[in-house]
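Thread: "does anyone have the structure for this chain?"

Original post by V.I.:
We have the sequence but no experimental structure in hand. Need at least a predicted one for the grant figures.
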Amino acid sequence: MQIASMHFKERAREKLGDERLQRNLQKIKSKFVGKRRSAITELDDFEGTRDAARAIRQRALDDLDVWLELFEANARARGATVLWAQDAAEINRLVVEIAFRHGVRKIVKSKSMVSEESALDLAIEGAGIEVVETDLGEYILQINGYEPPSHIVGPALHKSKEEVTELFHRRHATPRKEGIEELCREARAVLREHYLTADMGISGGNFFVAETGSVVLVTNEGNASLATTLPKVHVAISGIEKIVPTLEDVATLMRLLPRSATGQSISNYVDVLTGTRGEGEFHGVDHMYFILVDSGRTGVLASEVREALRCIRCGACMNHCPVYQAIGGHSYGWVYPGPIGSILTPMFVGLDKAHELPAASTSCNQCGVVCPVKIPLPDLQRKLREQAFERRLRPWSERAALRAWAWVARRPGLYAAVSRVGVRALRLLARGDGMIRRLPFGRAWTSGRDMPAPTGRTFRELYAARRNGETP
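Reply from O.Q.:
Generated one for you, tokens below.
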């Protein structure tokens, strides 16, 4: 996927002015936020389950090499082939080589965020092989000219029913449908033929299980089940951090993943796929491949933001993020949007290309509060902001202002004097309703909103007044 994170500010400004997108983004709260709130109450000890999930994911990361080697040994013992990809180009090369090896003419594909990193579909098409996305959201984006996903759980969340209706009418040459169920039936009818005629299926992997050499796939549409069992070849692609030690660990994580992602107690389909079809077995594939991808992940593991690799891709952080809710996923300019994307994207593509993303935060910590594996997202964002400052990636005016503030803040007497002058000056800028319409040297704060003016007294003055029994 093309990197556009360096254009974050311009893209965010454009999305804020997109009225259709703003209406579509309201679906986040109704689809995900409220349902999650209800779903987590079903657990007797939600916080205890989060602690257990955090421990599972951290245990896997702490001894990642051990679990990867165990996974490889067990997967091979069950007839699978395990391959390793260093970067996006190697992912694409391996997939195309597998396809050529087995005479593949058509590939059906379940949702895989790692394949978005490498623009795998375009590489497959470039090799002369047909590829069809089978996740409904990804299918919508594919037939719309490979539009990038805007959400890791709902790739087409930014689109309305009316937009999908028009797209299906144009691409399928069918009458316009009015209801969502009718649109889903139309997509199923189109995709059914592809399932039955595909030679290879590609999936991601919610979890790779070390003790069994299995891949766990979690979906709501059943497309992953069809894409990975009907074709004769299955290729599962995922980052090396998706390893979990045991199936028991998966059971714990599955108590949190669907609840955090879509507000469901359990997803409609959970597939645990292990190896190739054995003698006498009806279901299964003739050839099973795992591609384990680094593509910057070992660099994250060795960094001070390594906790970000605990992510189980539920999307809860972006669902609750006021920044994401305002601008959507495309503003972030790469595969992973929202709070987790503001950490992973700079680490995967380079901080110099994405230093705006860690600053796109209110530091409200809603993302950290809802993260099922307790990733301290605001803290990690702050660490990347510090790195960007130290590397002089931030604008000189911002760096100068922060240095000036730090110099004053280290001198309490001077800081108190400047504060007294500042709050009184700001008070003078307010109109009769106590709101500042335009803030000098801070137009970004007031270009789209009014800023409440201070009372004209500093916090120290107000605190002292209250201590003395005065009315502040």
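V.I.: this helps a lot. DSSP finds 25 helices and twelve strands in the chain.
O.Q.: and The first helix runs from residue 8 to 16.
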